Amino acid sequence: MQIPYTSKPRPDTGLYNAKVGLWLFLASEVMLFGGLFSAYILLRTGHEGPWPRGWLSVPIGTFNTMVLISSSISATMAWAACKMGQFNRFKMFHGITLLLAILFLGVKSFEYRDKLTHYWVETKSGVVADGHLVKKTDTEVVLHGVRTSDAAVLYDRTSADYKKLHHEEITIPTADIKKISNYQPKLNIYLSLYWCITGLHALHLIGGILVFGYLWGPGSSMWNRDRERFTNRIEIAGLYWHFVDLVWVFVFPVLYLF
Amino acid sequence: MASSNAATHSHAHDHAHAHDDHHAPTGFWTNYIFSTDHKVVGIQYGVTALFFMLFGFGLMMMMRWQIAHPGEALPVLGPLLEKLLGSNMAGKGIISPDLYNSFGAMHGTIMVFLAIVPLATGAFGNYLVPIQIGAIDMAFPKLNMASFQLYFWGGVVMFTSFFVPGGAAQAGWTSYPPLANAIPTDGQTYWLIGMVFLISSSLLGSANIIATIIQLRAPGMTWMRMPFFVWSQFVAAFLLLLAFPPLEAAGVMQLMDKVFGTSFFLPTGLAVGGDLANISGGGSPLLWQHLFWFLAHPEVYVLILPALGIISEIIACNTRKPLWGYKTLVYSALMLGFISFIVWAHHMYMTGMSTKIATFFQTTTMIISIPSVIILTCLLLSLWGGSIRFNTPMLFATAFLPMFAIGGLTGLPLGFNYSDIHLHDTYYVIGHFHYVVAPGTIFALFAGIYFWFPKVTGRHMNEFWGKVHFWGSLVFMNVIFMPMFSQGMGGMLRRMSDGGINYLLRPELLYMNKVILYGAIGLALAQIPFIINFFQSISGGKKVTSDNPWEATTLDWQTPTPPGHGNFDRPMEVFRGPYEYSVPGHQTDFTPQNEKPKA
Lengths: 258, 599
Ligand code: HEM
Ligand SMILES: [Cu+2]
Known about the structure:
The complex is a heterodimer of chains A (about 260) and B (about 600).
Chain A: H1 17-45, H2 58-83, H3 87-116, E1 118-123, E2 128-136, E3 140-148, H4 151-155, H5 160-164, E4 168-173, E5 177-182, H6 189-216, H7 222-225, H8 227-257
Antiparallel strand pairs in A: 1-2, 1-5, 2-3, 3-4
Chain B: H1 6-11, H2 28-33, H3 38-68, H4 77-85, H5 87-90, H6 97-132, H7 141-160, H8 179-182, H9 187-215, H10 228-259, E1 271-272, E2 275-276, H11 285-319, H12 326-339, H13 355-383, H14 392-415, H15 417-423, H16 427-457, H17 463-489, H18 512-540
Antiparallel strand pairs in B: 1-2
Bound molecules: protoporphyrin IX containing FE and copper (II) ion.
């Protein structure tokens, strides 16, 4: 007594069970990220005052986009290798996917760390300073970055006005500080969205890495027992991976470029 | 002829592919706690959900006492509450406004997310969908187990929140910010974490049900031969699958607001208790309402669709007639499903939306009432000319129809913004949705329990006590909910621990609070025969004399009783539609779906 269509497709639907399940799961994921992007749109269109632009590094973001797209390609190659019965080739491509995924997360955590050492300081004298923390003592805070008395300039960092600002080492006496915060989620609504959306995306990657790691390591022994079913597993893991990739393709322009 | 399933067990073992064999479980843990058998999972859901329903009912009883006797100590339970929850919550055994709010929020949360939906989809869906389509199990048995475990632990988190500093969540089952953030209690954080568990559980469960229906239908079980119950579960599962994720996103954002101090839902310049709140601002409380109701309106159809499915099965069987307009029912259910995604803002007319947007949502709301009325009409017409067997399940099923009608019709004045401005957030709304959910869905669930009990346990529940349960419930449900309409129209607001005395336009309606309390006590008493009957019948009920005691047509009655692991003792093949009752020329008045046509 077996549940039918665990690896062979059902004739009238043309799909095996896990594939149906995965598509359904992805449909719900579309709604999950759809909800987050709608939140982004609603919060941005309803926002009063300047919206932060150019706060993230486009080169790093582009690099990471490339990394993910390449990993999608290698995931497809791994599945093709399974289909052709070439186990070693599968191992290679699947391993590449895994390494690229880890590379993405490495770059992402570098970006996160960068945000946590980036400070925004408002002084009582009306000057706003923004830059990376060099030193913090009881009496003063030293940043490497820019300062201005017109905070609006700091919001649009793609503007000419911002580019005119001079990068320097800035020392601010503690007594003069009105507000100091690093780029944690609560600094402003843009950063809240940034952390929330990329954080959830990163969680999806971690989940994917666990599954991919399992299929590369202990799970790959299924190759010898039930080749067809193993190939299916690689296929649906790959579909999931393409989805995570696709989400990033939306996240990148929305948060880094617009 | 409760036949044993031993034969099927033994040959399960000699398949070549050892890993995907569908073994019968052995041992206590795999049998009862971590079972992957859809029937066991269904029963687990059922028992847990019934427990939560009783618990949610208990919260409601205490609240009703409080508004009927404001400022008086709660008899019997008062001192216990003081001991458990502290004297600032229930000092001298009096329910404080904060505690009242906790009870209200948790009553709603528990009833919707931990009782009714799990019972309707988790218990009935899990148990019946596979056997009605002739499958041996769900498509993903392990996921099925996981979704029950997530549900269970989500429930545990919710339950624990009563005992954390500040008490359980107090901002209603809708958890509107900024209120939800402003109340200084960790209970809200627990609520959010609990919800993330429950949402994940329902996502796994609904994907599983849909995949099962798409993939595992027995040969011959075409889409238009599926029992309407299966259709109702199919549509409900799609609603859960697609409407819940935005609330999950919103839950994560509210959690970040609570834990990391972000302001997704908190506007700039928010004042709490007269002081400017120390927040970064820039968020939007309305965003939460949109994301919440985008789920919660489809959710109300998740509450009602499986109920309609159960009622349809019972009506067809007990009138000994095909359902009137099976295809119409199916298309209406599908239409309900689609339209329920575009009516959500009818819960938000009071938020100052533009008249254009309000017009859009009024129009869609009126449109969605059309398929609801069609379904009700079909079921009503199905009774016409039948020789009806009024057993307990059928009594509940027939009473369901007018009760659901009252609930649905009272929704129309809420759907127009000019009448809703007066009625919004009053007891009228409470009356409206309780009519749909309590004497509506809960009656359907009771009907289902009485109807399928013989299949699940091999024994009947007692008919006499079933009828006592039915008549008591019917009378007292109406004593409780009917007065709420007049109180609401008189301006009595919901969610007020004193019943909203200060705002009431017609104070003479206040006495009804006492009437409602007596009704609630009566309803509680009417459940006692059910509880005793339920447990007593498991071992002491009248034994079934056949696998198909109601002489029904669908495949769930073609299994051994109770169905063993793998459900059927022979492969199922389907030759006809689901409701071939009283077919002229046939020697019995029912023709099972798997009966071969004569050549
Ligand atoms: C066919 C017709 C229906 C219409 C036109 C309708 C309309 C409405 C409207 C406009 C509201 C918002 C009232 C307000 O807050 O001012 C409402 C509330 C509600 N309805 Fe319905 N409804 C219908 C059917 C149902 C069904 C079938 C269910 C459930 C099974 C349901 C459950 C609810 C619930 C739970 C609420 C209250 C939510 C809350 O504020 O806590 N309704 N309905
Ligand atoms: Cu609604």
